[in-house]
């Protein structure tokens, strides 16, 4: 499920990864993520976040950069079964990809930390 | 911060993608065997046709095993698109040569997933794959044995008829 929210409840969210262009927060309470990007904060559940990642990674940035055709420099990130769409420029795609890459690295790091601190010692 | 990704799924995104690729490979194998069964039947090799029908069913069963494992572990199983199945063969022998090639490619692919799981220390999936590794011993043995029949019986005279008759009797019953 994806919903858009205007307010950032930063007190209960954890900043997973952020850049100057945007950020992704995790809400442990709601078991979801908030993507703060392109002027809005959108709520993503597990499945939708993976679909967003797949859709953004799927854009062939190099091909777009080399393409000298007349098609507009705009990419529509449509996520199936999610009531949310992004219409982004190529620069925004690059920025969102950077945020997602950082986020998933942080997830892996968090997984290692959880294992080391809580799962394995007991 | 909770480890939400791990809570949702036991397998990593990379292993999930490889397993889905394997689902597709098994589906492709099943369709290839079905085409082989049809070719053998049309050309009068009834025992071989029956053998390939059974193989097609086995590959389908393997596909479902992978499919259900992905779902059970919290992943997203993708129903594969299967295209480009060869329908015609130049000779009886070519059918069996391609059947062995197909099995070798499946074994290599499973070994590749196994290596990835070892790297990630995903021993749960490794354990799941053990069954398939053992199964591949049988599959490759049967395909290789069928080709061997062409050597020991020979295709001359009623050779192909003899080979067809013996293909139906190929069994692998090693307890090792």
TrEMBL record, chain A:
Q: What is this protein called?
A: Uncharacterized protein
Q: Which organism is it from?
A: Mucilaginibacter pedocola
UniProtKB/TrEMBL annotation, chain B:
User: Which Gene3D superfamilies does this one have?
Assistant: 1.20.1260.10
Q: What does the UniProt entry say about where the protein is found?
A: Cytoplasm
Q: Name one GO biological process term.
A: iron ion transport
Keywords noted in UniProt = Cytoplasm, Iron, Iron storage, Metal-binding, Oxidoreductase
Keyword Cytoplasm among record annotations: yes
Provide a GO CC annotation, any one. cytoplasm
Q: Could you tell me what this protein is called?
A: Ferritin
Gene source species: Mucilaginibacter pedocola
Lineage per the UniProt record: Bacteria, Pseudomonadati, Bacteroidota, Sphingobacteriia, Sphingobacteriales
């Amino acid at each position: 499920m994806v919903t858009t929210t205007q307010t950032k409840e930063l007190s209960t969210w954890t900043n997973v990864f952020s850049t100057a262009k945007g950020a992704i927060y995790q809400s442990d309470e709601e078991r979801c993520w908030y993507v703060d990007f392109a002027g809005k904060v959108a709520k993503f559940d597990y499945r939708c976040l993976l679909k967003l990642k797949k859709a953004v990674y799927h854009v062939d940035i190099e091909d777009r950069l080399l393409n000298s055709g007349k098609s507009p420099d705009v990419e529509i990130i449509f996520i199936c079964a999610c009531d949310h769409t992004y219409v982004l420029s190529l620069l925004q795609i690059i920025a969102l990809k950077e945020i997602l890459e950082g986020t998933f690295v942080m997830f892996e790091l968090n997984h290692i930390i959880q294992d080391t601190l809580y799962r394995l010692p007991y | 911060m909770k480890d939400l990704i791990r809570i949702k799924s036991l397998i990593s995104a990379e292993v999930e993608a490889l397993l889905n690729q394997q689902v597709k490979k098994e589906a492709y194998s099943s369709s290839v065997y079905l085409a082989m069964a049809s070719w053998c039947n049309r050309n009068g090799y009834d025992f071989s046709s029956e053998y390939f029908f059974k193989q097609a069913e086995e590959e389908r069963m393997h596909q479902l095993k992978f499919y259900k494992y992905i779902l059970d572990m919290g992943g997203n199983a993708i129903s594969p698109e299967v295209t480009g199945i060869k329908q015609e063969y130049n000779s009886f022998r070519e059918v069996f040569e391609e059947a062995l090639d197909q099995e070798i490619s499946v074994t290599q692919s499973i070994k590749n997933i196994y290596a990835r799981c070892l790297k990630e220390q995903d021993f749960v999936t490794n354990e799941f794959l053990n069954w398939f590794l053992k199964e591949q011993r049988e599959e490759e043995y049967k395909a290789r044995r069928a080709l061997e029949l062409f050597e020991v019986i020979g295709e001359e005279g009623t050779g192909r008829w003899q080979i067809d008759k013996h293909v139906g009797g190929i069994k692998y019953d090693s307890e090792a």
